[in-house]
Amino acid sequence: MADRYFPNAMPDFVPEASVEDAVVAERAKDSLSNLLHLPHAALSEKLKKSALDLKDTVVRETRALSGKRLQDYTLYTGALGTAYLVFKAFQVTKNESDLKLCSEIIRACDAASHDSGRVTFICGHAGVCALGAVVAKHSGDERLLDHYLTRFKEIQLPRELPNELLYGRAGFLWAGSFLNKHIGKETISAARMRAVVDDVIKHGRRLAKGGKCPLMYEWHGKKYWGAAHGLAGIMYVLMGVPLKPDEVEDVKGTLCYMIKNQFPSGNYPSSEGSETDRLVHWCHGAPGVALTLVKAAEVFGSQEFLQAAVDAADVVWNRGLLKRVGICHGISGNAYVFLSLCRLTGNAKYLYRAKAFACFLQDRALRLISEGKMHGGDRPYSLFEGIGGMACLFMDMTEPSEARFPAYEL
Known about the structure:
- InterPro entries: 6hp_glycosidase-like_sf, LANC-like, LanC-like_prot_euk.
- Keywords: Metal-binding, Zinc.
- Pfam families: LANC_like.
- This is LanC-like protein GCR2 isoform X1.
- By secondary structure, the protein is an all-alpha fold.
- It is built from 16 helices and no strands.
- It has helices at 16-29, 31-36, 40-66, 79-93, 96-113, 125-139, 142-153, 169-182, 190-208, 231-238, 245-260, 286-300, 303-319, 331-345, 348-370, 387-396.
C-alpha cells in the first residue's frame, strides 16, 4: 500500500465570498464537499459527535484487551493514550464520568509502569505521573495529586539514556514542562530541569563537534532529524525551557542548519545524510519540523522561521493526505500543522486546510479502512497510531484556537 492517498485531493482555500457559487452544484453530490463547507458551528457539532463515538469505541476495545494487568501502559500505543483521549472528552463535554474513568485508567497505568525503566511522557512512567497529577488536580484529589508528583520526582534518569523525545531526556523534560504549565510554576524545580538541559546540550555539542550544525544527536546509531527521535523534537523541548544565551544561539543555529539542508521539494530528511524524500509524517519529515518551526517563530519572533514553517506546511498540504489515520504518521497528526499555523498567524487558509483533512477523515476514513484502502494502524485503537488520534483531532477542531498536537505542543 502506498504511503500517500491522493495528492492535491482537496480544493485549496478561496475566500468565503467566492466559495458559495463555486460549490453549490457540488454540495448535493459530494458528501466531503458538503461537510467541508458547513458553517463552523454545525461542523464542530458533527465532529464532536463522531469524536465521542470513537472515544467510546476506543475505551471499549482497549479496556477489553487490557486484562488484569496492562501489557502496554504508554501514551503512544497503550492505555495512557486512552486516558488522554478520555480526559480530552471531559475537557470538551465536562462530563464527570469521563474524569472518573480517566483516573481509573491512569491508576492501572501507574501499577503497570511501577518498575518501568522508561522515563518519558509519551513512552514512559513520567507520562503516567504527569497526566495523573493533572487529572487529580481537576478532580480535586489532593492526596492523589501528591502521590503522582512524588512518584514523578523520584524518577531517576539512567546515564545511558538517549536524548530524543519518545524514550530520552527530551521526553522527560517535556513531562516536567507539562506539569509546570498545568500544576504550577516550579512544580518541577528549575534546578531539576536545568540538570537535564545541561546533559542534553552537552551531548549535542559533543556529537556536533567539528560539524556545521551546532547540536547533533544519535538514536540507535542514526542522526535523526524528526520530532520523535531527532533534532526537531529535541529543539522543540529546549525552546520551552530557560536557556543560556549561548544555548539559544545553538538552538537557532541547529534550526537554520535544518532549513538550509532541506530537500529541494521543501520536505525534510528523516536523518542526517538521507537522500530519501518520501516521509511526510510528524515522526519523520515536514510535519514535525513545521510544528517546531512554528514554535521557533513564536519564541524568537523570527520571520525566517515563520516563512520556513509556512513552506513546510505547504509540503504537508500537497503530500500529507496519507493512507493512515494516526497522529504519529497519518492524516490526523498532519492536520495539527495547519491548526498551529492558524493559531500563530490568524490566517483563515490554515483553518480551512485543517478542516479539509478532518473532514476527509470524518467522511471516508472508517469506510476506507474497512475496504482495506487505508491503514488503520498496527494498534488500531491507540492514540498515536489509530483512531484514538483521529478522535482527538475531531475534539480539537471544536475549539481550533485551543488545539495542541498531543504530547508535543504545550
